Amino acid sequence: MKILQRPAQVAVVGLGDLPPGVLAGMRHAIAEALGVAARGGPALDRPLYAYNAARGQYHTPAILRRLASLRAGAGGAPVVGITAVDLFLPETRYVLGDADRDAGAAVISICRLAAADPEALGRRARVEAIHAAGQLLGLSHCGDHRCAMYLAEEAVDCDRKGPGLCGSCRAALGLP
Ligand SMILES: [Zn+2]
Ligand SMILES: [Zn+2]
Questions:
Q1: Per-residue pLDDT of the chain (176 residues; tens, 9 = 90+)
Q2: Given phi > 0 = left and psi -120 to 50 = alpha, else beta, which region is 104?
Q3: N or C of the chain: less Cβ packing under 10 Å?
């Protein structure tokens, strides 16, 4: 199997207000699961430029374009964003996140990951952060529902996943 070339680091940035500790938890989870350094980036505002008033949601590709534009300032590192606003793609009711591997940008939303227990939200955010960063490292969606690279369509999917990657996704990154 050809092992994917990993970038030395990824940047993790927040767009708008987030619960305390979520960003730091994402950085730790990405570093631990994917074997890349994950560092912070600029704190961004809520992505009003992506707001679609008719849907009351935020257009994911517009956010990915903005995040991709930050790569130059991040030393070329791929950028993972996280936001509390609700995201959509034109053909979907909503998405939990999306990634553009060629552009080197991904975004996840905690809007639909909220739980009565704040620790459950943090855990879901960590799993989806690994998923998003994993896509930027070249991993594809995984058929194993326990693997972080499985495509989560709702919060319960996140709860079955993780904390990290399955054996074959680890092998694709050259991880033991
Ligand atoms: Zn995905
Ligand atoms: Zn997997």
A1: 678 888 889 999 999 999 999 999 999 999 999 999 999 988 999 999 999 999 999 999 999 999 999 998 878 899 999 999 999 999 999 999 999 999 999 999 999 998 888 889 999 999 999 999 999 999 999 999 999 999 999 999 999 998 899 999 999 999 98
A2: left
A3: C
Q: Residue 95 in contact with residue 65, Cβ under 8 Å?
A: no
Of the bound ligands, which one is closest to the alpha carbon of residue 148?
Answer: 2
**CATH fit for domain 9-168, picks 3.40.390.10, 3.40.50.720, 1.10.3730.10, 3.40.50.300:** 3.40.390.10
Give residue 135 CA to ligand 1 midpoint distance, Å: 7
What is the radius of gyration, based on Cα positions, of the chain?
15
- Expressed in angstroms and rounded, the spacing between residue 99 Cα and the centre of ligand 1 is 7
| pTM of the predicted structure, to 2 decimals | 0.95
- Tell me which amino acid residue 35 is: G
